[in-house]
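Retro notes, item 3 of 5
We never archived the inputs for the coenzyme A complex last cycle. Fixing that now. Sequence and ligand:
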Amino acid sequence: MPNIPSGARGAVITGWGSALGENTVTNEDLARVLDTSNEWIIERTGILERHVGGSTASLSIESGRKALQMAGVDPTEIDALVLATTTPDRSVPATSATVQNALGLKCGAFDVNAACSGFVYAMINAHGLIAMGARKVLVIGTDTLARITDWTDRNTAVLFADGSGAVVLEASDTGSQLLGWDIDADGSAEKYLYAELGGNIKMEGKEVFRRAVRIMVDSAQKSLAAAGITAEQLTLVVPHQANIRIIQAACERLGVPMDKAALVLQHVGNTSSASIPLALVDSLDRGRVKQGDYLLLVGFGAGMTAASAVLQWGGSAS
Ligand code: COA
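Structure as it came back at the time:
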């Protein structure tokens, strides 16, 4: 991946927010209607419960509004809205148009579909817009996977859920938060994880698992190299929340202890584009991130895509 040119204007996160589907579905709820058990789901995935409900627009509006409020930014000041989603509410227009109107934004808005890597793709795009002159960008990652999940298929029904996470990115003339990034895709692997238009998610779980670990680690290493830091210097890894075992395997290969991983999947399941921002927002709300800390965002998903970004909280002075 290209290095960030010296002198490119950087950005920092100044506000954040999240939203979850209003209904909680526990493993016991699923075990009542599927041939599965609480023990199996916990052991193989790490998930205890998930949230379903809402539309991609309604969840995005909720998380986006919270992020704007926290940043103290008036909606009219936003120069662009980038919405990562794999589950738009309609084919046309983009769901970002609905969100733009509801939030009172007066700017361009577009959707990014890179499956579960989508939020990182969107963040990298937003930094590019800021380097090109935008001053404030709202970045949202939202998915309503419950709508495209076959609730009679135990292979997928135990994994997926609905949620949204958002951040406000503001141009910074004194330092850049994004130190290195990577985006990747391998369309030849699309057969392992897909949903036809109007259809449900089909997945070869074992093959996705195997590839997920490899492509996450590969992408993370590229971003770390571009940022010029080592895995040991990371304070926090914010991985895609698909399966605790995938996160453990990826952290082990990267040489990062699990206590540095942001984890919310126990309570939210796999929310695709919302997964990384939900984990990031949770860590920020808990005060896990201090000025100057190095963070790694890293995801993988259908496509098969991978994406990662190394951030220095508050921006680097260089
Ligand atoms: N409850 C109980 N048993 C289940 C089950 C469920 N929900 N789902 C599958 N099983 C069974 C299988 O039928 C199989 O039975 P068998 O041995 O009699 O054939 C057994 O459990 C093992 O299945 P397997 O698919 O090998 O399990 P696994 O350890 O690979 O775990 C996943 C399955 C889906 C949890 C795991 O492969 C995974 O997480 N893959 C990645 C998926 C992912 O991340 N997708 C989203 C990407 S963004």
